[in-house]
Fold these 2 entries.
Entry 1:
Amino acid sequence: MDILIVLEDNNGKIHRMGLESIAAAQKMANDLGLSMGALVMGKNGDALAEQASGFNVGEVIKVNNKLLSSYSSDGYAEAVKQVIEQENPTYVLFGHSYQVRDYAPRVSAKLMKPFLVDNVAMNTEGGNVVFTKQMFNAKLFSDITPVSDGPYLVSFQSAAFSSENAVSGSASVREATVNLDASMIKTESEEPFQEEAGGVDLTSAEIIVSIGRGIGKEENIPLAETLAQALGGELAASRPVVDAGWLPAAHQIGSSGQSVSPQMYLALGISGAIQHVVGMKGSKNIVAINKDPEAPIFEIADYGVVGDVLEIIPKLVESLKGD
Ligand SMILES: Cc1cc2nc3c(=O)[nH]c(=O)nc-3n(C[C@H](O)[C@H](O)[C@H](O)COP(=O)(O)OP(=O)(O)OC[C@H]3O[C@@H](n4cnc5c(N)ncnc54)[C@H](O)[C@@H]3O)c2cc1C
């Protein structure tokens, strides 16, 4: 096959970034006439294979091996390396998740093949694939066209592609065998990292209420929390809010925080600095409230309100509660 999509397990479901990788692979396959397949493994491999077979991914390759039942970078890197050697794909696509950051560089080193990391876009030009990544803190974009022999390992930043564009279909499931020995597994993982203290997962939130320095002071945070609750959404923040200690670091959106793509991102008192925007530009609808009409956030907002968040939030809460 030409493109191998490596799907990650998110508690028995395909990780959202895996769906985004499927959308990327489908675009490559359509534009360039390439074949594809999706790899699943781990203790939820059967459930993942069933879900993946509902997408137009060519075929699903399922690896069953008890040494992969819990995640280890040694085991996963060796398994993915062996599947690549068996299937000989030109492109191997990953979501740029924490897990992939942990083990995929080992795959690259084992194969002595390049790993093009954290791409924000991919285009096909003149029969070539062009990957785009950000450089110098997103001040510059760099286009990369691989020219040597594959396979090329490629990861995409969260929201580089929309999971909603993953086209469903019907794919067959095939089992593949990898040879692993317990002596190869030298690390043992702890419980998966919770991206969010308090059980909140911003990466899968449908509605995010995000506050910036414009919220003014820590005492105003409950106001924004009330709005988030009234909307059934999660609370997030720009970096100054986290740096000030008003919210835990897990709430930070941006280049040094989380990347999210909710249905609605409400930016309250956030200027729209590039380091923030890279983490939320994939949101389906962006609503910005800012007292400065020139604030850069309005350039990417679908809806903008020029005004004081401290006046507008209580009114929004009031109307949402129907008081
Ligand atoms: C290496 C590096 C990494 C970084 N990583 C991140 C990151 O991951 N995430 C991140 O967010 N930032 C990050 N930053 C910081 C980033 O550059 C900005 O400084 C930050 O995003 C600005 O946050 P802000 O918009 O809340 O604050 P400001 O830029 O200060 O903007 C505050 C906004 O609130 C408005 N405002 C003020 N009062 C009110 C009011 N009462 N009502 C309505 N509007 C009001 C103002 O008009 C202004 O537009 C990083 C910077 C560096 C150098």
Entry 2:
Amino acid sequence: MKIIITGANRGIGLSLTNLYLKQGHQVYAICRSDNNLLSLNNDNLEIINNCDVCDEQNIQKIADYFSDIKIDLLINNAGILRDETLGALNVKSINDQFQTNALAPLLVTQSLLDSMIDQTTLSKVVFITSRMGSITDNTSGGRYGYRMSKVALNIAAKSMSVDLKANNVAVAIIHPGLVGTDMIGGQGNLTPDEAAQKINKRIEGLTLDNTGTFWYSNGDVLPW
Ligand SMILES: NC(=O)c1ccc[n+]([C@@H]2O[C@H](COP(=O)([O-])OP(=O)(O)OC[C@H]3O[C@@H](n4cnc5c(N)ncnc54)[C@H](OP(=O)(O)O)[C@@H]3O)[C@@H](O)[C@H]2O)c1
């Protein structure tokens, strides 16, 4: 398979990159900095460096790069987590999370549609979301910008699943679990490698029949 992963240089994205390289796939690693990726030294790895997914010119660069390459799987993984306090909400922080976590994955996916749509073979798009974007599951409050951005991501991904079904493109919306990456200070229930394995299981099971599902990486279906 030919696979694109955003935010591939650390955390869950780096583990997914490693996993798919070990499985012998061709991985295109999109990143702002290639520090951890260079040492992987694998012929099946192509690094697209200096690529900020929030920058529209960079998104155009991605579209141009893949104009002649057929992509089987796109994993929109890049994301940020900030915190806000009710009473002192920080507009920039909320905007940054919306831009990175909701708008960027939508625009990156749109820019790659021509490389993914092929009526004869199934392509897959994965959005790495969070259960913090589940309204039903929100019993602890707070995290305004992050929660709002992931809810927005979820609804955009759901629309894509509807719009792209007839084009042979299946969409998964996956919460990885609590994963010990920099994002949460390294403390989690899963290592990034364990999370990558579970995410891969969900991707393997993704079809046009279950497209648009919001999954926990362990296979549970999450409520919106
Ligand atoms: N860890 C968890 O427990 C957890 C739980 C639920 C959901 N998630 C989701 O899982 C995904 C991966 O998170 P993680 O835990 O692996 O976090 P991480 O270790 O902080 O990694 C985040 C990755 O996203 C990249 N990124 C952020 N903004 C970017 C931008 N504008 N352009 C390009 N790349 C950008 C980072 O690149 P730089 O190195 O350049 O900053 C980094 O590679 C995120 O979508 C996150 O919301 C994580």
